[in-house]
């Protein structure tokens, strides 16, 4: 292999048979029906159908087995649904993809009906059964995957309809699984109620609570990074780490989603789910194996060790202009920005602040984990002048991991300077396409691998952590501070970071390497 070339396993073999034997995900064949409920909506066109197309294009959805159904109330034909989603799937000028696209679109059928009547779901079931009969002329099982790209308010009725009318009927085996989107509830009570309603209809093994941050390449890398590298094992604790930041920034506002957003706010939209899931992977103990239940057990344990959030460790913000959206009330206190500090009461992390920060309409778009190390004891090089060591995992854009460290400045003088050890994916893995989070997670649902999905008890603890704060915000007891769109957010958030012990390195900026 020449220099600069890297061996990357072909995606069709990324889990070999020994993995399957050891961790119990059974490869299944037979007719596969994927049903996208809410097919007329935003998520379906922007994420679900494009992910399905990419899986199809790469050979993960066998055209001899798979059929895709869209279901929603909007009255449109098969062809109209195809026209709506076509533009989101591919650059049509790409001739190679154009051919795959037209074959893929032919696999899609649309059924229109309400979410709470058996009549619509009977028609859906007939359409699925028709497909199964036509495909199962030879022996095989039937698999039905229901993807709820819908507002959570209709989950209970939709699940009831699926259970009543649309379960897999094959005597030859197979399964029925459902995928549910976030936000799963609005607080502990509503989430538990929703869990109970769905739990009465489906076993936990059939329910896939999706959090798409768990499908991001560098989030998936966290366990490998932490537990397959001797480097990190002795450093990853309160003796060496000063603070941890998990940051999400967007450089655009709520744009057309104001109605939804105002009901939820940034904590429910991003922090309680995406950032908290990332925190689990940073902070959890080593699982006894890679079995999904072992991993999720450890995530639950670390969440249970989080102490109640204190109001003086929270800064909320709302960008100026947010209320201009006609669907947002003029007196809304909904935060579009939040910095909140979580503290983990266990042997590894006592005293280390985990700073979770998320905001819309800020000055940049990025998501990253920033681990700041303590100062060097008995420093003889004046390292503090350069700034602390930091290990940064850039989740997006420009996926990368880099370590900020102090080195001797090249030259005759004995001067020190801050530099970095840099693993930028674009440069290191040239020509390797990083899969979209949804693509990977949908493939997991087909394989029956729940590792990267949120278990019911995990969700419950996640809500336990944030519900008291959310209720105080909802009652107006914690106020959102206005900030300018395109800024860093309220200055009080930077002050909180400083108070928590984060030391910013002034004058240093990491620039992703260019090819
Ligand atoms: N959009 C995004 O980027 C993301 C969305 N999500 C989650 O995915 C789910 C779907 O989101 P999204 O596609 O944006 O939502 P939409 O508002 O686009 O709703 C999806 C479809 O559901 C139906 N619908 C909308 N409102 C109602 C209602 N009140 N009662 C019954 N049916 C309704 C509509 O179909 P019809 O009227 O034809 O039946 C609509 O096309 C939500 O849970 C959301 O939080 C998660 C991450 C990102
Ligand atoms: O779940 C959500 O995520 C998106 C951001 O996703 P990303 O993969 O682009 O980082 C966010 O815009 C949206 O508000 C939220 O609901």
Q: What is the class of the largest domain in the CATH system?
A: Alpha Beta
Backbone CA Rg: 24 Å
From the helix content, strand content and strand pairing, which structural class follows?
Answer: alpha/beta
Task: Summarize model confidence as the mean pLDDT.
Answer: 91
Distance between the termini: 20 Å
Q: What overall form do the CA principal axes indicate?
A: globular
CATH fold call of the largest domain = Dihydrodipicolinate Reductase, domain 2
Strand content: 15-25%
Ligands bound to this protein structure? NADPH dihydro-nicotinamide-adenine-dinucleotide phosphate, ligand LXAUTJHC
Contiguous runs where pLDDT drops below 50 for at least 5 residues: 1-21
Identify the strand order in the major beta sheet: 14-13-12-11-7-10-9-8-15
Largest sheet: 9 strands, mixed
CATH evolutionary superfamily of the largest domain: Dihydrodipicolinate Reductase, domain 2
In which range does the helix fraction lie? 25-40%
Number of domains: 2
**How many β-strands, per DSSP?**
15
Please work out how many helical segments DSSP would assign: 16
Q: Could you say what the CATH architecture of the largest domain is? A: 2-Layer Sandwich
EC number: 1.1.1.49
GO molecular function: glucose-6-phosphate dehydrogenase activity; NADP binding
Catalytic activity: D-glucose 6-phosphate + NADP(+) = 6-phospho-D-glucono-1,5-lactone + NADPH + H(+)
Main location: cytoplasm
């Amino acid at each position: 292999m020449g220099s600069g070339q890297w061996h990357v396993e072909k995606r069709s073999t990324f889990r070999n048979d020994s993995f399957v034997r050891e961790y119990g995900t059974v490869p299944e064949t037979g007719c596969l029906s994927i049903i996208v409920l809410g097919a007329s909506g935003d998520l379906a066109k922007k994420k679900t159908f494009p992910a399905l197309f990419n899986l199809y294009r790469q050979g993960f959805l066998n055209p001899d087995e798979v059929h895709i159904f869209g279901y929603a109330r909007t009255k449109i034909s098969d062809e109209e649904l195809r026209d709506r989603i076509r533009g989101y799937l591919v650059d049509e000028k790409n001739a190679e993809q154009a051919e795959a696209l037209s074959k893929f679109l032919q696999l899609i059928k649309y059924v229109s009906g309400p979410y709470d009547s058996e009549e619509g779901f009977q028609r859906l079931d007939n359409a699925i059964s028709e497909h199964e009969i036509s495909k199962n002329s030879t022996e095989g099982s039937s698999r039905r995957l229901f993807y709820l790209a819908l507002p959570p308010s209709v989950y209970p009725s939709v699940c009831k309809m699926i259970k009543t009318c649309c379960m897999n009927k094959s005597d030859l085996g197979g399964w029925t699984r459902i995928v549910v989107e976030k936000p799963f509830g609005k607080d502990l009570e509503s989430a538990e109620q929703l869990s109970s309603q769905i739990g009465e209809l489906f076993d936990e093994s059939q329910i896939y609570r999706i959090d798409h941050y768990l499908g991001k390449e560098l989030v998936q890398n966290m366990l490998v990074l932490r537990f397959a590298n001797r480097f990190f094992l002795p450093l990853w604790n309160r003796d060496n780490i000063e603070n941890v930041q998990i940051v999400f920034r967007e450089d655009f506002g709520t744009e057309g989603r104001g109605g939804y957003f105002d009901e939820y706010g940034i904590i429910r939209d991003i922090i309680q789910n995406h950032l908290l899931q990332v925190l689990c992977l940073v902070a959890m103990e080593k699982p006894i194996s890679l079995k999904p239940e072992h991993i999720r057990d450890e995530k639950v344990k670390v969440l249970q060790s989080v102490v109640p959030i204190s109001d003086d460790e929270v800064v909320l913000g709302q960008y100026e202009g947010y209320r201009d959206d006609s669907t947002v009330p003029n007196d809304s206190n909904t935060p579009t920005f939040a910095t909140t500090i979580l503290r983990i009461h266990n042997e590894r992390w006592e005293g280390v602040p985990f700073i979770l920060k998320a905001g819309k309409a800020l000055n940049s778009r990025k998501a990253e984990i920033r681990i700041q190390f303590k100062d060097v004891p008995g420093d003889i090089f004046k390292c503090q002048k350069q700034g602390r060591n930091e290990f940064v995992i850039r989740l997006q854009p420009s996926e990368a991991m880099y370590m900020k460290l102090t080195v001797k400045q090249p030259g005759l003088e004995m001067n020190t300077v801050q530099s970095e050890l840099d693993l930028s994916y674009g440069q290191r893995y040239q020509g390797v396409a990083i899969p979209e989070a949804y693509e990977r997670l949908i493939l997991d649902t087909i394989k029956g691998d729940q590792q990267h999905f949120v278990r019911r008890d995990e969700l419950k603890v996640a809500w336990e952590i944030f519900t008291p704060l959310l209720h105080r915000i909802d009652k107006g007891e914690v106020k959102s501070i206005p900030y300018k769109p395109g800024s860093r957010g309220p200055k009080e958030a930077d002050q909180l970071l400083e108070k928590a012990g984060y030391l910013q390195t002034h004058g240093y900026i990491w620039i992703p390497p260019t090819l």
